[in-house]
């Protein structure tokens, strides 16, 4: 068993040093590994172009789906974007991203190969394409169209929100969790120039899938013109994950874990993995909680339906939570069933009983989220 | 405002400042404050909200009676007889406008009763074709409720229209509007009676969806509406000073000023809780005496400024722009006080608008 001690006080500004001292003399190294955790993700042989590409495609694709509020979307374009063929990404929806439009178009892979349950999410995107035919219609119960600025289906659902938020689970969290599990099995001795050891590479790819810059600052409000800004779930650390301090916790854990791998401190690595998995899932829960809460304070159907749709998307994302999750299958099913309620019905309940039930499940499972 | 509660102020102060985190998360802050809040909410429900709904129901029935006489024999005389009942009902509506949460919101009451400006073209095409559906909550934008009646009853050639080719369809349209208004209002009253009142008075938190949260949000929302659609927008505040007088509330009947004053007066009454405990007393309990007197003073400044505008307000937008400007500024100041200062003092998060970037 190892006893760890952190020397140094500031987690954000300063560099701190981990000292690992042995408690049991028989199986611990004679001299404890001492290593430095840098305050940015600044390590040797870091490469995660695949993750950057995937996140950029997520941004381009979901932004394109959002254009359905103003024009009819083409089913062909949806296919091309999803598979990343026919130079589908254009400057209209891929400006200010970590990689430029031409680089996205020549990635050589599409979201289709990076998303769990890809067929399901493609279907949701296709539904948005279909609903976009009604962009100039006024929505009503049973009729797809616009509620304020929001484009919804016959029951009030904004499909693009289901895709955008759902993929934070089906792509980001699914990938991150799988890569973190993989890295435990990877070799950590043979260094390849540019990508490091297999373990380091899995770890770096996982970090890339979080969608935050290497010099991430959890306290900063990033402008949406900044190329290296937090994207997808990375953007929600600040938007909905501030109470649980998601951004700082996850960024620190990734840096600690990578430093631990460099020093072959696998206990440190595994602690970081546990923290990352738990906090990522909790971020989804905090976002779902926020969007189950916010519409209770509004009488505007556009606000309500938008919030319900975001909430639905985050609930879809929670499907990809780690096996160690505290959220039971039964409670997850309840959350999902509530989100499947017709939104007109959901909004017509003055007491918000179902939304309150969601809040209770989420806080009982995860503790205070807001 | 009662002085017997001074001891509570100190107690509440300790509790509130002792556990700041609780007030952020909407937790209740102790027994003495809870008793106060419960009394305040009972006062809101029983002496302000429920009687206001009843008043509107009664005024609607009076208006409907006058309407029946008008529809039976449309003339300048029967039209004239409509004016006062119409004004009374519309003014009464302003008394429930601030209660747009819970059952009212679930019924989309305000959306149906008072979305303005009137969509004249949509109404006329609906009357022509007989093809319209007032039950579509979102499509109900401005084809029904008071703004539609305002147009149908009091536009320049209203009487002529009710005697013209579309008379039958037009009369049916008016009756459908009444049926819809009465249905939603009755549904709202029933939901309050059937359990929401108890939910409302028992929810002592201040978080999103709580009773106090809803009240403060609606105060701010109503102020936003007064500053925006009621005065600012027709006055040209969103159109580089180009006046859109016909976009104001009650344009055709020229009750714009009465309605805005009724709205703000009702809001002040909701703020003070009438003769009982209100948000004003709650602020005092929280030790925010200065803020409370600032808000009350600003209510009076804004009301006086509105009163100074000559009728009809739609004409004053151009002929007395300086007076309207003053009223606009005073309402804006009041909005700031309520939306930022009162909201933060009561630990209420403003949630009515969509501030989400995506």
Please give the structural blueprint.
The complex is a heterodimer of chains A (370) and B (358).
Chain A (H helix, E strand, L loop, with lengths): L1 E6 L8 E7 L11 E4 L11 H18 L8 H9 L17 H5 L12 H14 L13 E3 L2 E3 L6 H27 L12 H13 L22 H7 L6 H17 L3 H28 L7 H18 L10 H11 L3 H5 L5 H14 L4
Antiparallel strand pairs in A: 1-2, 2-3, 4-5
Helix pairs in contact in A: 1-5, 1-6, 4-5, 5-6, 5-9, 5-10, 6-8, 7-9, 8-9, 9-10, 9-13, 10-11, 11-13
Chain B lengths: L5 H13 L1 H5 L6 H42 L3 H19 L8 H4 L2 H5 L6 H10 L15 H10 L3 H5 L4 H36 L8 H22 L23 H17 L6 H7 L3 H19 L5 H7 L1 H25 L13
Helix pairs in contact in B: 3-4, 3-10, 4-8, 4-12, 8-10, 11-12, 11-16, 12-14, 13-14, 14-16
Could you write a compact summary of the structure shown?
The complex is a heterodimer of chains A (370) and B (358). Chain A is mainly α.
Overview of the structural elements:
The complex is a heterodimer of chains A (370) and B (358). Chain A is built from 13 helices and five strands. Chain A folds into two domains: 1-37, no CATH class; 42-286, no CATH class. Chain A has helices at 49-66, 75-83, 101-105, 118-131, 159-185, 198-210, 233-239, 246-262, 266-293, 301-318, 329-339, 343-347, 353-366; strands at residues 2-7, 16-22, 34-37, 145-147, 150-152. By secondary structure, chain A is mainly α. In chain A, a hairpin with an 8-residue loop joins strand 1 (2-7) and strand 2 (16-22). In chain A, the strands form two sheets. Chain A has a three-stranded antiparallel sheet with strand order 1-2-3, with helices on one face. Chain B is mainly alpha-helical and 358 residues long. Chain B has one domain: A middle domain of Talin 1. Helices cover 69% and strands 0% of the residues of chain B. Chain B contains 16 helices and no strands. The longest helix of chain B is centred in the N-terminal third of the chain and has 42 residues, at 31-72. Chain B starts with 5 loop residues before the first helix and ends in a 13-residue tail after the last helix. Classes of the chains: A mainly alpha (370), B mainly alpha (358).
